[in-house]
Specification:
By secondary structure, this protein is an alpha+beta fold. The chain has 2 domains: 93 residues, Helix Hairpins; 150 residues, Heat Shock Protein 90 (2-Layer Sandwich), CATH 3.30.565.10. The protein contains 5 helices and 7 strands, in the order ααβαββαββαββ. The strands form 2 sheets. A 5-stranded mixed beta sheet has the order 2-4-5-7-6. Strands 1-3 form a two-stranded antiparallel sheet. Helix 1 runs antiparallel to helix 2, helix 2 runs parallel beside helix 5 and helix 4 runs antiparallel to helix 5. The longest helix is centred in the first third of the chain and has 56 residues. The protein is flat. The protein starts with 11 loop residues before the first helix and ends with a strand. The mean pLDDT is 91. Bound molecules: adenosine-5'-triphosphate (ATP) and magnesium ion (MG). The site of magnesium ion has 4 residues, from helix 4.
C-alpha cells in the first residue's frame, strides 16, 4: 500500500527563517542579560565605594569616643553630630539605591492614571511655594492658557522627579534668583521644564550628569548627605513612562531640564 505523507506545515525555507529569527531573539535576550549584570555590578561597586568613607569616619569616631571617656562634653557632642550626619548620608544612599533598583526593575510597574497635567504642576508648585526652603528664591509657574492636557502618569513618581529637579535648582543657585516651572503641550507630547538662574553645568560634564553618582565636582555640591543618584532616578522614572529627559546649561547663567512625556 502506498504511504501517505502529510504535507509539511512549514517549508524548509520557512523553518530556516524561523531559526534565524529565534537565534536573533536569543542573542538580544542574552545582550539584555549581560547589560543587567553590568548594571548590577556597577551598582554594587558604587554602593561599596560611597559607603566606605562615611563608614571609615564612623569607625574612627567610635574609636575616639571609646579611647577617651573623659572627653569634654562639647567635643563629644560635635563628634556625635558628625556621626549622625554620616549615618544619615548612609541611610539616604541605601534608600536611593533601593529606589533606583525598583525604578529600573521592569517587573515593578508604574501606577499609571490619567492626570490633568496643568493641575498636577500647579499642585506641585503650590507645595514648593509653601515650603520654607525655597523662601529666598522667586518661584514662577508658566502654564499653557488653552485646554486641558491629560497624560497617563504615575503622579507619585513624577512628583519625585520634579522634586529632584527643584531641589537641584535650589542647591545650585543663589538667593534672589528665579526658579521657573513650565508646562507646554505639543501634539504628541507634554513638556515640563524646570529652569534656574544658577551656577550652570559645563559642556564637558553635561553628558554625564544622569549617570549614577556623578557629581560635577564634590566641592560645589553642598554637604547635605545626598547620594548623587537623583538624576539617575529621575531619568529612570521618565523613561519608564516612555518619555525623555534632557538638560541644557550654560556656566554662570543657569540650567534648564526638559521632560518630554508622550501623549497616547
Ligand atoms: N540645576 C543644576 N545646576 C547646576 N548643576 C546641577 C543642577 N542639577 C544637577 N546638577 C549637577 O549634576 C549632579 C547630579 O545631580 P543629581 O541630582 O543626580 O545629584 P545630587 O543633587 O548631587 O544628589 P541627590 O539628587 O542624590 O540628592 C549634581 O551633583 C550637580 O553637580
Ligand atoms: Mg539632586
Amino acid at each position: 500500500m502506498k504511504k501517505q505523507y502529510e504535507k509539511p506545515v512549514l517549508s524548509r525555507q520557512q523553518l530556516e527563517e524561523e531559526l534565524v529569527e529565534t537565534n536573533a531573539r536569543l542573542l538580544q535576550a542574552n545582550e539584555r542579560l549581560e547589560q543587567m549584570e553590568q548594571t548590577r555590578m556597577e551598582l554594587f561597586s558604587n554602593l561599596s565605594h560611597d559607603l566606605r568613607s562615611p563608614l571609615t569616619a564612623l569607625v574612627s569616631s567610635v574609636g575616639l569616643l571609646k579611647s577617651d571617656p573623659e572627653m569634654p562634653t562639647e567635643h563629644r557632642e560635635e563628634l556625635l553630630d558628625l556621626m549622625e550626619r554620616r549615618l544619615r548620608s548612609m541611610q539616604t544612599l541605601i534608600n536611593d539605591m533601593q529606589l533606583l533598583t525598583r525604578v529600573e526593575n521592569p517587573q515593578i510597574p508604574l501606577k499609571l492614571q490619567p492626570v490633568d497635567m496643568g493641575a498636577f504642576l500647579e499642585e506641585f508648585f503650590c507645595e514648593c511655594e509653601t515650603d520654607g526652603k525655597y523662601g529666598e528664591r522667586k518661584l514662577e509657574l508658566v502654564l499653557p492658557s488653552a485646554g486641558k492636557a491629560v497624560v497617563a502618569i504615575d503622579p507619585e513618581q513624577m512628583a519625585r522627579v520634579l522634586d529632584n529637579l527643584f531641589t537641584n535648582a535650589l542647591k545650585y543657585s543663589s538667593r534672589g534668583t528665579k526658579i521657573t516651572l513650565e508646562g507646554a503641550c505639543e501634539e504628541s507630547a507634554y513638556l515640563i521644564r524646570v529652569r534656574d538662574e544658577g551656577i550652570g553645568i559645563g559642556s564637558e560634564d553635561l553628558p554625564r550628569i544622569f549617570e549614577r553618582s556623578y557629581r560635577v565636582s564634590k566641592s560645589r555640591s553642598p554637604e547635605d548627605g545626598s547620594s548623587g543618584l537623583g538624576l539617575a532616578i529621575a531619568k529612570g522614572i521618565v523613561e519608564k513612562h516612555g518619555g525623555e529627559i534632557g538638560c541644557e546649561s550654560s556656566l554662570g547663567k543657569g540650567t534648564v531640564f526638559e521632560i518630554r512625556l508622550p501623549i497616547r
